[in-house]
Amino acid sequence: MDNDIFQGYKGDALELLKKYKVRVWGTVVADTTRGIFKGTVLPRAENDDDKHIVVKIVTGYNIGIDTRTVTSMKEVGYNKANYKIPEKAFPFTPGLPHVKLFGTGGTIASRLDYRTGAVIPAFSPGELYGAVPELADICNLDTEKIFAVFSENMGPKQYMALAIAIGKEIEKGIDGIVIGHGTDTLHHTGAALTFMCQNLPVPIVLVGSQRSSDRPSSDAALNLMHAMKAAGQSDIAEVMVCMFGPTSDEYGLLHKGTRVRKMHSSYRSTFRTIGDTPLARITRDDIFPIKKKYNKRRTDKNVKILPYFSDKVTMLYYYPGMAPDTLDALVEKGYKGIIFVGTGLGHVNKELYPAIERAHEKGVHMFMTLQTIWGYVHMFVYDTGRDMMAKGIIPTGNMLPEVAWVKLSWILGQTEDPAEVKKMMLTPINDEITNREPYNGYLVYQGGVPEVEAFIKDVHK
Ligand code: ASP
Question: What single-letter DSSP state applies at residue 86?
Fold first, then answer.
């Protein structure tokens, strides 16, 4: 057997495949000390370890079988996957809007799992047209792969580079921008771009997919179509996240970048607007605004790009019994901003108070957010809240913890003046703090449970 049929495998894993005459793309039945596994052997990436064989099992998930657990293997079939997307020239249609797609990586950018090495960039216009020809009915497309990372590897540098790239595209006169992104931190990037790209004249739509496009249940194509439509044809000039609304493919939702959060590890309908209603519902044919007030599309190019970010801001997720040295350690390490994620209305234990005082004396900027995710920080209700405020912790209303971390980092990248930092934190740029939660803003009322919506409307008549 030549090495070509063991694509990427080396060391123990390669030896094992050779020993049992199992090829990449072969259907294998592996007897292991952890049970019997059946599936398709996938290629390995260059820098993966040599102790695992990656198998796509029938559910569509990829598992790594540890070579040390294998007692025997048998190839029971072979079906070489055709995972190359045919490239077709993306047609130019006069009259359709011009959309730019920036690729950053994540599942939406991979045809098979990243870890297997069988990655198809799927990001040139030709590849995208080959995969989702319907896109050509929506817009004229230009693409650029800026990064190729899973979204846990996005961070300050990438946020700033993206903001600058967005500014340049707007200068050139683009009608809308789509950013393909891993879903795990889509909401952090949504917040970062909201603060870094202000006075937007066109829509900026972040999109990802929970299931890669080689899986029958993939949400990649529909999410892309919805995102391109939102970017090219909607009049909502805001930073938005576009993903499945309900678990079915009935419609997508557009969420504000500052009020959205990934709420389920695997549902396609994982993104929810928190403490507000989504901006709009979107289908392949229509865009239905849910919120009446939003920033409207304009024809000027007067965007403000503010690419600032301090890497000296951290979050402290409180747990009962947290010791004060946790906080002292952060201050000693030079952290200048701390977002507390407190219990209930915004609490931490009394044992932390002296450490909070020490941090305050050192000029650390401290803000309180909530573990409950929904609702408002209320530090006036109990004495303990008042005590903490006296020691320098500032409540942030209903700002989401991740958004507060992004915002404080963005602010401390510009100023360390305490009064200015406080003022900027508490002055909303785009609804990161709102005055009240609408009655239908809570989780269950998004994503198509019409009976519940009708019932609630009735109750609130
Ligand atoms: N871990 C991946 C990421 O966030 C998941 C995804 O793309 O949906 O990059």
Answer: P
- pLDDT tens digit string along 182-236? 999 999 999 999 999 999 999 999 999 988 776 667 888 899 999 999 999 999 9
Mean pLDDT highest for which of 21-25, 214-218, 293-297?
Answer: 293-297
Q: Which CATH architecture has domain 313-426?
A: 3-Layer(aba) Sandwich (3.40)
Q: CA-CA-CA-CA torsion for 229, 235, 240, 241, nearest 10 degrees?
A: -30
CATH number of 3-78: 2.30.30.520
Q: Residue 341 has what DSSP assignment?
A: E
Bridge partner list, 339: 315, 367
Pocket test for ligand 1, best of 147, 149, 184 (most atoms within 8 A of CB): 184
210 lines ligand 1 (CB under 6 A): yes
Which positions are annotated as active-site residues?
107, 183-184, 262
Q: How far apart are CA 290 and CA 280, in angstroms?
A: 5
User: Which pTM was predicted?
Assistant: 0.82
- Common-topology check for domains 3-78 and 313-426: no
Architecture of domain 98-305: 3-Layer(aba) Sandwich (3.40)
Tally of helices (H runs) and strands (E runs) in the chain: 11, 21
Q: Is the CB of 223 under 6 A from ligand 1?
A: no
Residue 36: helix, strand or coil by DSSP? strand
Segments making up each domain of the chain, as ranges: 3-78, 98-305, 313-426
Q: Is the pLDDT of residue 412 over 70?
A: yes
